[in-house]
Amino acid sequence: MKFIDKLPLSVKQEIKSVVETELEKYRLWKYVMFQEREASVTGSWSETPKGFTGSVSDQTGNIAAYNVDTIVERKAYCGRIEQAVSRLPDIERKIITERYMQRETVFNFVIFNQLLDPPISNGTYDKRRIHAMTKLSLMLNLKIKGLQDVF
Question: Whole-model pTM above 0.90?
Answer without folding.
Answer: no
